[in-house]
Amino acid sequence: MINRYRCPKCNFWLSSTLLRSKPYFQCPSCAAKLCISETYMRFLFYSGLVLGWAVPAILQIRNPFLFIAVAVLAWVPAGMVVTTFLQFAYPPRITFYSSDFSNPLSLTQDKKDGP
Over the stretch 3-32, which tens digit does the pLDDT of each residue have? Predict the structure, then answer.
C-alpha cells in the first residue's frame, strides 16, 4: 500500500516521495508551497527520543555512560520505527509552507516602524 496525500489547496493526490523535500515541496497541480505539519515533525522527533532512551531502561543498564551510549545509538532506529509506523496509523497533515519565522530571540529582526 502506497501512502498518498492530498494538497490542501486543490485536493490533488501527492505521492509520498514528494514529501521528502526540505524545507518545502510544491504541489504538481497548483504549485502551492506545502510542508508536513511542524507539530507532526516535533512529535516524531520526541517520540523517537523517548523510545531511544527507553531501550537501555528496558535492558536495565546501570552504568550511566553505557546507558547514555546505548540510548543515543538506539535513538535513530527508534525514530525510524516510529516514523514508519505512524505513516500508516496516523498520516502526516500537509499544510501550507510559510517562510515567515518570527523568532523573538533573533538578533537581526526587521524593523517595520521607522525611527
Answer: 578 888 898 888 777 777 677 888 888 988
Q: Please state at what angle helix 64-89 crosses helix 38-58, rounded to 10 degrees.
A: 140
Q: How do residues 60-81 score in pLDDT, each as one tens digit?
A: 999 999 999 999 999 989 888 8
- CA angle, corner 74, sides to 71 and 75, nearest 5? 85
93 beta partners: none
Strands (E), 1-115: 4-6, 13-15, 25-26, 33-36, 94-96
The helix/strand/coil state of 32 is coil
